[in-house]
Amino acid sequence: MRRVELTPRFERSFKRLSPHVQTAARKALRNLIEQPHAKSLNLEPVVGRPGFFTIRATLAFRVLLRREEDEDGVCYHAEDVDTHRIYRRK
Q: What is the mean pLDDT of the chain?
């Protein structure tokens, strides 16, 4: 089973977003659980950061995820949410 866990860093970034982007980010995370192969998510690996992926919240905003697998299935840790500069953060 797939699940998403929110990290403190994600929650801090999320609180700074406009209500519109917050709604879009929530929807993207819900779709990740329910429809992980939906083209609208644009799920893609982050080059140079093994185990990290992004999904599209809006055209300008991305959600940074760290993917892990355990006995319960796949877990995506939502690490951050921001514009495309998210790719430059460590």
A: 93
